[in-house]
């Protein structure tokens, strides 16, 4: 009789755990953020994200001078950084529109170029307030203690000497990403476009939960991939 009671109690604990997990999932599942690319899809051949720079395509074709490109560029308030988490059910995107920073362009000397960006983590948004509160809390990003994440470029790949307005060119950004005070060397594989007096940059890199001292949020009813995609969608102006 005692063994039967223990078995029933254990089964009850499992059932409660499953119900709790499902209740948590109901409050946290669902992707509410679509990635918006700053670079026209027809220029890069990319199929991911939503094109938000149709005007750039209309002005394609004109040659861009070094004078137009060289110099200090500032990240504008239309820029965004996305974090994407993939589970066994779906990919959930988080967007952060609070991005500042600079890119100093020098077509003649890639080694002379510099770049840096800062993201205010309190602005991170997945369209689900309960999920966002949990992600910003002590279990993950600890935003109260670490309100900013940064990326400082250490080197750029060499840029082409000739640019055409509205046409994307490849560029790699190698540097240090800092999240929760933890540094990680990363490379953003990117595309850049000059159009209408603005410089657009779209790039991605992959990191893991462990890279920044976070545990993978596996549950008994949902698997989560360890890799996180970080995506820059930046618009810069002089």
Automatic annotation (TrEMBL):
Database matches in Pfam families: YceI (PF04264)
InterPro entries in UniProt: Lipid/polyisoprenoid-bd_YceI, TTHA0802/YceI-like_sf
Family matches, as SMART domains: YceI
Transmembrane segments: none
Lipid/polyisoprenoid-binding YceI-like domain span: 72-235
Family to which the UniProt record says this protein belongs: Belongs to the UPF0312 family.
UniProt name for this protein: Polyisoprenoid-binding protein YceI
Species this protein is from: Paenibacillus jilunlii
